[in-house]
Amino acid sequence: xxxxxxxxxxxxxxxxxxxxxxxxxxxxxxxxxxxxxxxxxxxxxxxxxxxxxxxxxxxxxxxxxxxxxxxxxxxxxxxxxxxxxxxxxxxxxxx
Length: 95
Fold this sequence. Notes:
The protein has 95 residues and is mostly helical. It has one helix at 3-94. The radius of gyration is 40 Å and the shape is rod-shaped. The N and C termini lie far apart (132 Å).
């Protein structure tokens, strides 16, 4: 083997080492990205669960408001009647 051949082999070996190093870096970066994706999936699942719970609470509050509105509607009518009666009485008194 000549010195040129040995130099060629050494250069090729260095290229292979460099390529392997870059592949390891790529795999490491890929693992980090996969870990971040998993973390995002967990966060998304938790957010969806929280949103579902808040949505249920909102439905319950809307039902309560509708119920209270149902109770207050007749009272509002009665208050309007009382107000009209008081206006009529005050007009008769002031005449």
